[in-house]
Amino acid sequence: DGDDVADVGQVNYETIKYFTAEAYEQREYKTTVESFQKYSIAAQASLSMLNILQQFIVNFALAGGMMIAAWRVVKERGDLGEFVAVNAYIISIFAPLSFLGNVYTMAVTAAVDMHNLGQLLAETPDVSDPPRGVDLDL
User: Fold this and answer.
1) Mean pLDDT computed over every residue of the chain
2) Which string of b and e fits 51-85 if b means at least 16 CB within 10 Å?
């Protein structure tokens, strides 16, 4: 959206200068950039919260599994290989969870794109053909 406002300002440079609309264009650009920054920060915050919760779950499960495996090695005279196997198993179980952030980002981007498409399709054109316009024969 910010690129669109900047492009319009550059393409219509002479018109903006002629009508002394620099202040208006600056306000529009500033509003667009501030809106982008606000939503960018919100998206980054939600992704960060997802990553924090994801790491909490992984570390909690890993710590619990390691405590149970350590108890078994100490109390039941288990093998050290069992302890290492439990560690490797838990880590491999949670490996696909690290991809969840990418899936979340793709889903949010797709939702935003669909929203933007809906807004674009809902716009009415400024210039339209007359009801009984004739075809231009070139």
Assistant:
1) 83
2) eeebeeebeeebeebeeebeeebeeeeeeeeebee
